[in-house]
């Protein structure tokens, strides 16, 4: 796939997610994805599979929220197999507080699947979720 194809894939997936398809992004993760969440918050580490990422990051984070994160894409850059996505996610915690995080994801896409990713996020905001 070309850089333009990879960029469109990510744009389409996030449009689907914003439209209510919460599984859209996970559907394009390779089963053996290597995903790193930077920092030192409760979900920060490198996950070696889609299942590990779901169980170790997505599921526990979602359990702290009253509903799904609603994404808004700010920018998508692509070169070769690399896609950089800047986006904002808005949700409400189960305690009724806003959870509004900013994200920058750097991903490697191979044949329509995300094979590697690094998530740069406000880890302090994530850590606050575990305190409530």
Description of the molecule:
This protein has about 130 residues and is of the alpha+beta class. The chain has one domain (about 5-130): Roll (Nuclear Transport Factor 2, Chain: A), CATH 3.10.450. Helices cover about 35% and strands about 40% of the residues. It contains 4 helices and 6 strands. The chain has a 6-stranded mixed beta sheet. It is globular.
List the helices and strands and how they pair.
Blueprint: H1 3-18, H2 24-27, E1 29-37, E2 45-47, H3 50-63, E3 70-79, E4 82-92, E5 98-110, E6 113-121, H4 123-131
Parallel strand pairs: 1-6
Antiparallel strand pairs: 1-2, 3-4, 4-5, 5-6
Name the descriptors.
6 strands, 4 helices, 33% helix, alpha+beta, six-stranded mixed sheet, Nuclear Transport Factor 2, Chain: A, single chain, globular, 132 residues
- Rg (C-alpha, Å): 14 Å
- Tell me roughly what share of residues is in helical segments: 25-40%
Order of helices and strands: HHEEHEEEEH
Outline, from the CA principal axes?
globular
Enumerate the strands of the largest sheet in spatial order, edge to edge or round the barrel.
Answer: 2-1-6-5-4-3
Number of domains: 1
Strand content: 35-45%
The assigned CATH architecture is Roll
Structural class: alpha+beta
Distance between the termini: 43 Å
Question: What's the tally of helices?
Answer: 4
Largest sheet: 6 strands, mixed
Mean pLDDT: 96
CATH topology: Nuclear Transport Factor 2, Chain: A
Could you name the CATH class? Alpha Beta
Ranges with pLDDT <50 over ≥5 residues? none
Query: What's the number of extended β-strand segments?
Result: 6
